[in-house]
TrEMBL record:
It catalyses: hydrogencarbonate + H(+) = CO2 + H2O. Its EC number is 4.2.1.1. Keywords: Hydrolase, Metal-binding, Zinc. GO terms for molecular function: carbonate dehydratase activity; hydrolase activity; zinc ion binding. The keyword Zinc applies. Its cofactor is Zn(2+). Belongs to the beta-class carbonic anhydrase family. Zn(2+) binds at residues 41, 43, 99, 102. Binds 1 zinc ion per subunit. The gene is csh. Pfam families: Pro_CA. This is carbonic anhydrase.
Length: 190
């Protein structure tokens, strides 16, 4: 059982991590030293590359991640996290960082739905959702251009009715191989 092995490995490692006080080098506060909140993609290639490429370490920033660095809804959990970071955790700038070669770029909802069916999700379930007003296909839809997607997210944050007007919102796209950033929206100019 692969999953059981994975979990027991994690727990065994964790025990020695705590025992040997390896956490000490990570000690910091809940307030970001660099006073910013970053929304980026959950892509595995960005896990260490992104912080290194922008020179942030533990304690420096608030990070929010999801598939595609997308803000699906102005009153969804991503936007709420950004507002909490700004009002409660002293973030003074917002960075939206998409990346090239993102899985959400050109993602085919139909192919995911096919896989769901393969895993035993019934046609009936999908139909029930559809009758309840949930269009699973639309809901799973990604984006076609990462630049446009980042611009759109910047816009959602910038124009949000609960967002303070003096918070710059920047939009960037990172290369998941080299870590090079391309500026899409300079929040100081908007
Ligand atoms: Zn991605």
């Amino acid at each position: 059982m692969q999953t059981q092995t994975l979990l027991s490995e994690i727990l065994a490692y964790n025990e020695s991590f705590v025992k040997e006080k390896k956490y000490e080098e990570f000690e910091t506060t809940k307030f970001p030293n660099k006073r910013m909140v970053i929304l980026t993609c959950m892509d595995t290639r960005l896990l260490e590359l992104l912080p290194k490429a922008i020179n942030v370490s533990n304690g420096d920033v608030k990070t929010i991640k999801n598939a595609g660095a997308l803000i699906m809804h102005p009153f969804g959990s991503i936007m709420r996290s950004i507002l909490v970071a700004v009002y409660e955790l002293q973030a003074q700038e917002v960075l939206i960082i998409g990346h090239y070669d993102c899985g959400m770029s050109g993602m085919k909802a139909d192919s995911i739905i096919e896989k769901m069916k393969h895993k035993g999700i019934s046609e009936e379930t999908l139909q029930t959702l559809s009758y309840s007003g949930i269009n699973v296909s639309d809901w799973l839809h990604g984006f076609t251009s990462v630049n446009e997607s980042v611009e759109h997210s910047v816009d959602v944050v910038k124009k949000h009715p609960l967002m303070p007007k003096d918070i710059p919102v920047h939009g960037l796209v990172i290369d998941p191989k080299t870590g090079k950033l391309d500026l899409v929206v300079n929040g100081y100019e908007k």
